[in-house]
Amino acid sequence: MSSSPLNMNSGAHKLRGRGARATPAAGFTVCGCRATTASVLGCSLVVAVSIFVFVAFNSHVMLSVEGGGRATVDFAKFITNRYTTRTGQQPTATTLRQQPTAPSVDHAPPAEPQRPPADAASAKELPAVKPKDWHHLQCPHRELVTFWKDPTPADLAYVTPYADAAGDEKYVTFEPDVGGWNNIRMQMELVLVLAFATGRTLVLPPDQPMYLLNAGQKHQKAHGFDDFFPFQYIRKRMKVISMEDFLRQEAVAGRLRRHLGDGRHSDVYSRDKSSEEPKLKPKPKPKPNVEVDAEGSLWENGARKGAVLYPPQNKTVFVNTERDERLALWDYLRNVSAAPKWQTMTEFVVIPPRPGLNTSTDASLSAAERDAYRAQLDDFAADRSAVFYDDYWHRQRVIHFVSKPGAGYRLLEHFYTYLHFQDARMDRYFKRFVRDFVHYQDEIFCKAALIIDRLLAEGNGSFVAFHIRRGEFQYKVVKISGDQILENNARYLPRDALAYVASDERNQSFFEPFKRYFTNGVRFLNDFDELAGLRSINPNYLGMIDQVICSRADRRFVGTWFSTFSGYITRMRGYLGYADETVVYGDKEHRDRFQQHEHFKFPFYMREWREAWDHIDEA
């Protein structure tokens, strides 16, 4: 029984878990307690008090007071005050209950998948998050920006059905996207979720330059993903290692072989020294009944396996700020991995409820169940073709994602529009995981919180925000003047509002119409340099701070269509609970796209969709 923070069975579970055994004594059993006659009264008293406390947690208990008065003991309020005093946080309903609920089934067909038991090694590598480890910002006004939630007991206990109980470690490696920061973030989220969902270890690439994140000095010009995301918390829920560790454990140890193309993945790459870019090498022809051929390739049961490949110069550390070293590393990984050429926009990846289950043909499913899965698939497809993460892909030791748009290798899509989980509970779990763990580092939120608090004070409790993408933005149709933006959205923008503007426009005259329009003033990030100490932080954080500030504009947010920067603002607004109707876009053609619900559709990436945050906390 699990009912409340005072779980009366928790001690018994601990004893059984440790193999402890009490010495029998003369007497009898009361409510599971071995008792002598003399101790019955004590045991009964403990049980009575425990029942009283349990009831008190779930209701307001009315106690009579001598003299005819009556006192109300509000135990929920008492626990709330205790929690706030001890942690400095306002507890959620989940925090107060700490009570896992049985997962509901969205539709009849998908039965709860059988999850493999976690062995001792897995339990050691993936420790459960303890309350003291839950991620709470430690800075003023944190309540203004915190959208993530404490993990529920059910989420803490979750193990993907694809986890390998035998401990055969598999990996996902990837090359960061070649576009701007929010395209890079989008790809990383997708790869991370795929790795976690399929029971694989995520290998983070070495620090390297990222497009437009080139402000600052020396190390600030090259970045790893842990510069921007709290991987110290992400690692508590999934296995993540560095590229250096991966190369040392697998490559230098001689455990990686040339991966031979067989039509299910990309062609095998081979470095052509006359060119800076890898070129395709023809697939080798099989030679049956040979154990080791002249090229050193291994044959097992009639199937050819490539020869062992070691990394260039047998190195484990690649300086990815140097282009030649970066390309050499990518070339090596492309040769020793299964590199799927899965297409975004025209394809999507289906992850069945458990390994080995083909929901189209499995005999254990009824015709009605197969039809229900098919209906789900058709609804998700949005005119795309399905690619299944089947047994073939699950057997691959290393899956590597190439980032080479010119050759058709690019994962430019949201994880929740590209990965179709046929188990709806898995789908919601991974959406919650991204919300609660895969967000910006604390410093970004804490700096933004200081500025938001000041904006709310200056704006009498509210403000409007704009993201105006200019610069080298390739979508000319949305690069319009400030006057046009204001004219298109005049009905949504009260003139007496305080306005905050995030933009890469360098010409300050562009913003004169905004200063004339808003009588309460217009603010920019650099207005708060001194307040938030912005000159002392990594300058590449500034755009991310802009995003967090815009996410908290309660009166209206005006974004730029096609911009993934604006898109991520709208997703954070969804996490915070703002209605879609509070979002509009600057150009007239796309202005009202958030005013009614749309199911995600081509080209998918140009905006965020309600499916990322809507109803994801359901069991």
Description of the molecule:
The chain has about 625 residues and is an alpha/beta fold. Helices cover about 30% and strands about 10% of the residues. It contains 20 helices and 20 strands. It has helices spanning about 10-20, 40-55, 75-85, 95, 120-125, 155, 180-195, 230-235, 245-250, 325-335, 365-380, 390-395, 415-420, 425-435, 440-460, 480-490, 510-515, 530, 540-550, 565-575, and strands spanning about 30, 35, 60-65, 70-75, 170-175, 200-205, 240, 270, 280, 300, 305, 345-350, 385-390, 400, 420, 465-470, 500-505, 520-525, 555-560, 585. Strands 18-17-16-19-20 form a five-stranded parallel sheet, covered by helices on one side. A four-stranded parallel sheet has the order 7-6-5-14, with helices on both faces. Helix 15 crosses helix 19 (about 540-550) and helix 19 packs across helix 20.
Shape descriptor reads globular
Q: List segments where confidence is low: pLDDT < 50 over at least 5 consecutive residues.
A: 1-127, 268-290, 292-296
Biggest sheet: strand arrangement:
18-17-16-19-20
Number of extended strands = 20
Into which percent range does the helicity of residues fall?
A: 25-40%
* Strand percentage: 5-15%
Helix count? 20
Radius of gyration: 28 Å
Q: SS-based structural class?
A: alpha/beta
Distance between the termini: 18 Å
Can you summarize the main beta sheet?
A: 5 strands, parallel
Mean pLDDT: 79
